[in-house]
Amino acid sequence: MSEYDVAVVGAGTAGLTAAKHAAAGGARVVVLDSMGVGGQVLTVEGITNFPGRPEPIAGYDLGAELMEEAETAGAEVLLAEITGITQDHDRFLLEGDDEPVRAGAVVLAGGSARRALGVPGEEKLDGRGVSHCASCDGPFFRDRRVVVVGGGDSALDEAQILATLASEVLVVHDRAELTADPAIVRRAAEHANIGYRARSTVSAVHGEQRVESVTIRDLDGGTETDEPADGLFVYIGLDPNTAWLDGFVDLTGTGHVGVDAALQTSRPGVFAAGDVRDGSAAMLHECVDDGERVAAEVLTHLAATAGSDAERSRMI
User: Fold this and answer.
1) What's the pLDDT at 313?
2) Alpha-carbon distance 294 to 90, whole Å?
3) Is 136 a catalytic residue?
4) What pTM was estimated for this model as a whole?
5) Which CATH class is domain 130-234?
6) Which of 133, 218, 239, 289 is catalytic?
7) What CA–CA distance (Å, rounded) separates 200 from 175?
8) CATH architecture designation of domain 2-113+238-315
9) 234-252 confidence digits (pLDDT tens)
10) Which candidate in 61, 136, 220, 246 is catalytic?
């Protein structure tokens, strides 16, 4: 069994930032993630709003840089899926697909997963025309017609990537107005092949081997029309990755982790950072801030609970 001061579950922006600062503060830190480093930004082609970086950066490059910074500070980053957590006195045991990890404090930073529409045909055709990543799958739809569901930043950013490849991009959103940042909306308007369908949603996906068409429902009148489409890209929000916690800490009705002002959960010694926590706006700058804040709180907790004078001195 591996022993650490801090176990960070999740190698996204919040988790890697927390690991970097906690390790720099003298803690023995391990970061655990089953999907590699980067989190949700991994598939973003050009990030323009990361704090301290005036130039756009690809998500996979940012993830690699954050990991390098964490490792340089002394943190260890491991590829591992964590499926359960228990407590033994003042230590926490994390179990998964590798040997267990024990730590004096835990940071929950597992992020979120893209939310599905939950409509007929979507699951069947997932990976066969239904996607959540334009930069990954966009080249498969060159000169084809695609539908993007969502009106926020992610939907409009991805629609612009698709517009450079597909012949036509139809953005279907459920509000009267787009909710994306005005600057993103303006850039999207420069693409003549992006169209919009407001107050609407996709209610079904059709096709045998691949997506062939979608049904679009008008939310005001209730009428439905079938539209030809070769691809469907869904960006309607995120669901927190918290099912594995299984009652270990208190969750909100949306599945987010409840925290106090110190980002501590209902269980002392377990903290949460990034968009997995309740109240997060799921913005990159907030994830960075969360990572820095939670690292300071974790170091304070470890110093207060250290079992010996030597250990206490190491953590201060």
Assistant:
1) 46
2) 19
3) yes
4) 0.76
5) alpha beta
6) 133
7) 8
8) 3-Layer(bba) Sandwich (3.50)
9) 999 888 999 999 899 999 9
10) 136
